[in-house]
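Q: What would this complex look like in 3D?
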Amino acid sequence: MRADQFMTLRPEGLYCIPGDFFIDPVRPVDRAVVTHGHADHARPGHGAVLATPETLAIMAIRYGASHAGRTQSVEYGEVLTLGDTRVSLHPAGHVLGSAQILVEHGGHRLVASGDYKRHADPTVTPFEVVPCDTFITEATFGLPVFRHPPGADEVAKLLASLELFSDRPHLVGAYALGKAQRVIAEIRAAGYDAPIYLHGALEKLCHFYEAEGVALGELVPVAGLKAKDVAGQIVLCPPGSMADRWSRKFGEVITCFASGWMRVRARARQRGVELPLVMSDHADWDDLCQTILDTQASEVWVTHGQEDGLVHWCGTQGIAAKPLNMIGYGDEGDEAAEPIETDEAAS
Amino acid sequence: MKAFAELLDRLAYEPRRNGKLRLMTRFFRDTPDPERGLALAALTGGLDFKNAKPNVIRGLVQERTDEVLFGLSYDYVGDLSETVALIWPADHGVNVPPPSLKVVVETLATTGKADLPGVLARWLDTLDETGRWALLKLITGGLRVGVSARLAKTAVAGLGDLAPDAIEEVWHGLKPPYEGLFAWAEGEGEQPENDDPAPFSPAMLAHPIEDSDFAKLDADDFLAEWKWDGIRVQAATGTAKDGTAVRRLYSRTGDEISGAFPDLVEALPEDVTLDGELLILIDGRVQTFNTLQQRLNRKTVSAKLLASHPAHMRVYDLLRQDGEDLRPLPFAERRERLEALVAAHDHPRLDISSMVRFADWDALAAARSDPGSHGAGADADAVEGVMIKRADSAYVPGRPKGPWWKWKRDPMLIDAVLMYAQRGHGKRSSFYSDYTFGVWRADGEGQALVPVGKAYFGFTNEELKQIDSFVRKHTVNRFGPVREVIHGEDAGLVLEVAFEGLQRSTRHKSGVAMRFPRISRLRWDKPPREADTLETVMALLPEGER
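A: Here is my prediction, written as structure tokens for the whole assembly.
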């Protein structure tokens, strides 16, 4: 049995023929298995969704309780039979509830890893290596220029800046799901215990993380506050708000952005970032390569990102690899997946 | 090296002058000698590493990385030093601390071409990404972190309560790593001796004069001269201890530019400091600023350019003569000595800026509006306005208010239509504050707008808010950080743009480039169809370029 005999690419997304389900479909389908709650992987309108309880809860927060006809929650490691396949979910270390999907069929083990990372992150269950024959990997940071430093180093930069520019609010752009909570948790781990101020768009998911047992310390809504109230304080907001009119009321802010893309200076400058914090939900180059080796897969499919580099590297290791050229996926930080700046919702 | 790398990293992203100053001053305070002094040398362009060329670095990285992966990465990142810094494979076995700046500077001074790659590779192995980036930027020249030599010196002054000009005064007698300078700035040492035989003297600058100022000023107290459209320079000459002649040309901020102007340097009189304007003169006529520009920002100059663009200095002040500091003397007295000096020296490359005679302010106004018939003659196009100086004024560094004034000619004005807007930086990062504007050009049956320039200041904060709001409400297209704004005959925003001059340009679609354009007024009242045409703009070109 070869992987492409039971797993195939359709316009909706990856489709498992003997199991009759899609993985992270980009269009509404009858049966979807969803790796994690980011909007490019978890979309509303499916007939049935199978995911971890956390992912289902996140989808309900984002899209409302009726985002799918039916939902089924599966714990990490629990094995289900779907059609002629055995399916189980395993921690991916990407965001809360994120999972890799192991599909076993005809003696072949295939892992669709979704988005994943292996760097330490206090807010998630760590990535678990799942040995397999075929490994489907992302390649968001699939070039050897992307090496993420430890989160603590980046937080140290932020705290040092806070000390030097203690008269200016530090506005930290961070995606609402996963990044914001990780940034806060890393800041707390560094011993910073002052209140952290939140843009309204981040509140719900932060509260959800706390309800799930991730301690984030004192969080204060920033709505209604002025520049002087947050001088020398940390204010978290969605990246789109960093340079939006919303940020104006805080006066001369220091614009910070927590993203793996901040490794590249041109990307940071393009967004007017003054303090780039290289912090990512995704595996960096070294971890992408190491993970492929760890799974002992003999075949690798690359879904989205910098496929060329990773496919080339697999070749140098004697591992068969092909790009899937899937569209519709990207880091939530990528321009494509980012919601257009909302002027109207500003003020 | 680590602290210096972190400093460069932060400076590269910090858009604000004050922010940059704070970062540098903190670095100078926290970093011991000689590291901080070598950092200051790097920031002021005082370090030069001859053998470290980009191809050496390219060769190094090719040995250590997969060619395809490097190619893909370089395409993505776009900058060689940065790509190498990021892609350099970590060598976890290295158990040596990264080099200090001192080690880098001393080692590179004594390392030959053949040994250089090995030395560099060892350093790169010990540094982190930021450290590698900073090292490569440092040794390949051009830090490009938005810090001028002047700003770095200002940051040193900020260690205590020195004036930046006090540092300029002694700067050219100093050498890295500047231990004496730092001790002085921190109040722990004496002012360093400046034994440079041809030192730079910080320039005296003028305030723009406002209409309301004239009522308070008595014309009899003042002298006036033409303000020339060139580059302010200072020439200093002297004799070194060993008897050799030293001749230098400085920019107005104290950067030495002698190398680019050998023709002028050899024309200087001995043992003087002269303040004046750098111009290009052909057949006794002052050429346009556009022509002068071809000789600027070069380290060396070709024989061809020396012949086609001969440099000239039109002097207007004498600060030092035969070892005597003349700066405390009244301007009128310095001027007399200057006239005598220029007459005695009698060199075609050096002349004196002639005085403008006037009985009262109205007479001066008349001269300013028509320099041609008030003494400037054929060079009237090169006159930017008049300088007004108190006859009794001492030469004081900086911009003291009162003794010197500049009264520029009225700017040129056009009405243009806003076409594109881009977000600004720093505290303007939420505002669309950089504007591309255009004028009408006949196009087949009708007319179309062609961009003629870009402006990002001149407006008040209130006007900025208004334009920003207009841009957001009338966006028709987005290109990354740029928005295209509605601009038709009946819809759009007309901007009155002021500028100092116009020149031909092959780089601009319209064929012209403006000097110093800024938004002078918002013409909400004016329909875009009535904005100016390219023809009208072209008519403003200097006669020779039309």
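A: To summarize the key features: The interface with chain A takes residues 10, 12-16, 19, 22-23, 26, 65-66, 68-70, 72-73, 76-79, 82-83, 86-87, 89-90, 128-129, 423, 425-427, 429-431, 472, 480-481 of chain B (CB under 8 Å). Chain B has a mean pLDDT of 92.
Q: Very helpful, thank you.
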